Amino acid sequence: MLEPLIRRVATIDLVREFAELTRHLAALRPPARASLDGAILDRSQLRLDASVQLRVISELPEQLGLVAAHVRDERAPIGLRVGLRVILRSVICHARDVPAHESTAVSLLGPALLFHTLIRELGPWLPPALAIAEPERVLDVLALGIPADLRALADERLESGWARFHRLLQLGPSAVEARADIMGFDDAQLAALLSHPAASLPVPPRRPPGRRADGPEPDAPLPVFDPGSLALPRV
């Protein structure tokens, strides 16, 4: 269910999670410089990366809720509504399957990366109100905190989500009733819709990896969680 995931994110202790993200990044990426100045620079970068990650995760509830609102909108095309449900379902299942971690923020890095990658790559097929994806430089920062095996799991869900979205996008009003509780559709119901004749047309290929869509210039500062809004510890 989406609501427990939203509540889980909305109730995190931001001060504690900032510290946990910084420690987690340090464990995955130990400082490479031996000098004192180099160590200070590494620590500053860790804190900057953790601030970016925390900002993205703290904004997830609002963004997930926005997608859910479009799923429930009976004025929207049926195919789009069901396709958006696939995006949400992919994120929910990924959050469920990621190994437990004492830090909520750390455990949500993968689901956040999956959500924003799907929203970003599917942007041309989404309504303007869902132009909420993070720039790829931010996705790179999220990926810094995800071990290789969990990135592979996210990549599998990304490929599956891309294909299922495009197949379901083809569905017309005859496939699903407009008043159906699409937000309540589970994997079995979505799989049944994938067997509909209208969902059998070819799926467009994903854009080549590494090709950057429009976003901030490479040297533009990334938006971060504002440290001034909290007494964030020097970790």
How does this model look, in words?
The radius of gyration is 19 Å and the shape is elongated. It has 235 residues and is mainly alpha-helical. The longest helix is centred in the first third of the chain and has 23 residues, at 36-58. The protein has helices spanning 2-10, 14-28, 36-58, 60-72, 78-97, 104-107, 109-121, 136-143, 148-169, 187-194. The protein is built from 10 helices and no strands. The protein has one domain (2-27, 40-200). Helix 2 (14-28) crosses helix 3, helix 4 runs antiparallel to helix 5 (78-97) and helix 5 runs antiparallel to helix 9 (148-169). It is 57% helix and 0% strand.
Largest sheet: none
Q: Strand share of the residues?
A: under 5%
* SS field, number of helical segments: 10
The parts where pLDDT drops under 50 for at least 5 residues are 33-37, 208-217, 231-235
Helix content: 55-70%
* Total strands: 0
What is the CA-atom radius of gyration, in angstroms?
19 Å
Q: Give the N-to-C terminal Cα separation.
A: 34 Å
Net shape: elongated
